[in-house]
Amino acid sequence: MALYKLNRFHWHLTDSQGWRIEIKKYPKLALIGGIGNYGEEYTPAQFYTQEEIKEVVTYALERNIHIIPEIDMPGHASAASKAYPEFSGGGSPKYPGYTFNPGKDSVYTYLTDILKEVDALFPSQVIHLGGDEVHYGNQDWNTNKDIQDLMKHEKNEEFKRCRELLFSKDG
């Protein structure tokens, strides 16, 4: 990369097929979520330890390359859901366990803990969250009580904000 003057490396460390980064607070992410790949569902867990990541980061920085890690959310969470199903928002028949559950407060603590560990490893202080293709596996959101409650609450809050804007003295 340095030879071609490329100075940003976007490192996709998680996806539906595998969780490829050690998170010390949640070891099953790598040990269970790291099992499998695109071709073989049961290949042994493969992931980078935090020490290995530090080595790669140091090597890259010596060559003026900054690494931007990607931790996909709320979709592409199938590997994470295998490891910690209590944080899953479900999925669809084709993409089971595809999402994190945005309707559970504990999910935000879980994801914050993960992102804190990731952030400590990468000097760039930037983490790409993905955020794409959630619609592939959010079918279960239609029947998940936590998520339905969140959607109703947010819809009511948005309605209140719109009403306030429409009927304000300045409007």
List keywords for this structure.
alpha/beta; TIM Barrel; 171 residues; 3-stranded parallel beta sheet; single chain
Q: In a nutshell, what does this entry contain?
A:
The protein is of the alpha/beta class.
Topology:
Elements: E1 8-12, E2 14-15, E3 18-19, H1 28-31, H2 50-62, E4 66-73, H3 78-83, E5 88-90, E6 99-100, H4 105-121, E7 128-130, H5 145-166
Parallel strand pairs: 1-4, 4-7
Antiparallel strand pairs: 2-3, 5-6
Description:
The chain has a single domain (8-140), classed as Glycosidases (TIM Barrel), CATH 3.20.20.80. The longest helix is centred in the last third of the chain and has 22 residues, at 145-166. The chain has helices at 28-31, 50-62, 78-83, 105-121, 145-166, and strands at 8-12, 14-15, 18-19, 66-73, 88-90, 99-100, 128-130. The model has no long low-confidence stretch (mean pLDDT 93). Strand 5 and strand 6 form a beta hairpin. By secondary structure, it is an alpha/beta fold. It is built from five helices and seven strands; from the N terminus they run E-E-E-H-H-E-H-E-E-H-E-H. It starts with 7 loop residues before the first strand and ends in a 5-residue tail after the last helix. It has a three-stranded parallel sheet. A two-stranded antiparallel ribbon has the order 2-3.
